[in-house]
Amino acid sequence: MESKNWIGGEWFVPHGEEFIVRNPSEMSHEVGVVHLSPASDVFRAAQAARRSLPAWASLTGAKRGEYLYKIAILLEQHIDEVANLASSEMGKPISELRGEVMRGVHLLKYYAAEGVRSNGDVIPSNECDVLQYSVRVPLGVVGIITPWNFPVAIPIWKLAPALICGNTVIWKPAENASLTATLLAELFVEAELPAGVVNVVMGRGSDVGDALVSQAIVDAISFTGSTSIGRQIAVKCADRNVKFQTEMGGKNAAIVLDDADLVKAVPAILSGAFRSAGQKCTATSRLIVQQGVAPALIKEITKAVAELAVGHALDATTYTGPVASQAQYQKVLSYVNLANTDGTIVAQGRSKVDPYSGFYVMPTVVSDIDADHALVQEEIFGPVTTLLTVPDYDAAVELCNRTLYGLSASLFTRDLSHALSFLNDVSAGMVRVNQETAGVEYQAPFGGMKQSSSHIREQGQAALTFYSQVKTCAIAY
Ligand code: NAD
């Protein structure tokens, strides 16, 4: 397979730099070739998106919804093809990727239905004979920049609300999700989405992504990725007065109190920490455990982690696959080395396959680490979680909040008053009791506090607020 750009309804292969994609589960397997674009392709895409804007924006919401619904049906029909390709491209286990594709299908159907929902309010006027109301209108051309860790769901949770609100789009996928992006674009073509409504440009963030943010004539940018890049993008957008949304990193904690039900807590902790090889912005990367339950929890976790199926992402029984790339592998291994030198490894997984055949990092739980250590404060984005013990609930919440990030947090308890206090006391955009830190449903607002977000939510109704602007209308009669 080869990546291609899709601009103004035409396919073409850019003649820039190219690289071979190797399957992170099995480096000897060449999955395809990615062709990277020059920045000039972004300007071409911006012109195409601008040209198709009036016709797309003037369609009824019902008609735009029909296109989204058609894409949803096609995506579901191609679930195996999309999940296999994405899993081979970035290493997420196939069982999870099938779930991710279905999330994309549900998101498309959810936003398709928004095309015929009420849009705006009637606001009583102080004058007689005046009808006053507000209506949501499109922003215009929207630039969408996505990461590789959810190569299907994140693009769709941006594209679907952008399109239903009447915007046209330039989408710059992550470099190592470009093959999957090409396949998704093929489904948009099959759904007969009008030319130029979505334009897909493959390329490096530092040139194509930056040209989209800094130079292309766009009306909004929606970015998901690391906090460092997101903050740079926010500055550039603010300088141009381009509306922006940045969803960024996390360092999410799961707190386990003495009264927790470990039968429920342990699987939720494993899933939060080690599914997707810990490469979720909402991954559980800190465990904060009350002293009384710590010995029992550590015993359970040590046993369970040793039994996790670590292996090839296309094996349906795999729980933890490889990390996505060489860069990820080196970065995550540097944290594992720190865990070995500066802490105590209390649990570690074992691979079912040759660990050197791909980018395999064993699931690891490390304790005896200072709360200000890099392992506890930095986003590792791999299957490594730290375990800290605390005397009581107050100390747990203090540690939970002692981070730059504020994406998600969980508490495991049977005590209703601690559960309710926790939902109030924690500075995170998504707070969950007796549930893992990951897994917020598509119809609910998604986003973080502090350095995790520019504070505008995605998904659910919240996304419609970002992808539209409000016009206040008044008619005297
Ligand atoms: P990244 O920041 O390196 O890249 C994200 C995207 O931005 C890619 O498409 C990349 O090409 C592009 N990019 C890079 N430099 C750019 C620039 N200067 N200008 C414009 N675009 C640029 O992140 P990543 O490694 O792809 O993804 C992992 C990160 O994403 C983690 O920090 C993770 O927490 C975060 N993430 C956050 C959420 C969320 O909703 N909060 C969801 C998923 C991932």
How would you portray this structure in words?
40% of the residues lie in helices and 22% in strands. It has 477 residues and is of the alpha/beta class. The protein has two domains: 5-248 and 453-476, Aldehyde Dehydrogenase, Chain A, domain 1; 252-441, Aldehyde Dehydrogenase, Chain A, domain 2, CATH 3.40.309. A seven-stranded mixed sheet has the order 13-14-15-12-11-17-18, sandwiched between helices. A five-stranded parallel sheet has the order 8-7-6-9-10, sandwiched between helices. Strands 1-2 form a two-stranded antiparallel ribbon. The termini are far apart. The mean pLDDT is 98. Residues 145-150, 172, 174-175, 205-206, 209-210, 213, 224-226, 229, 232-233, 247-250, 281, 379, 381, 407, 448, 452 line the site of nicotinamide-adenine-dinucleotide.
Based on the coordinates given, report the CATH architecture of the largest domain.
Answer: 3-Layer(aba) Sandwich
Model regions low in confidence, pLDDT < 50 over at least 5 residues: none
What percentage of residues falls in helices of 4 or more residues? 25-40%
- What oligomeric arrangement do these chains adopt? single chain
Protein name: Aldehyde dehydrogenase family protein
Organism: Alicyclobacillus fastidiosus
Domain Aldehyde dehydrogenase: 14-472
Pfam families: Aldedh (PF00171)
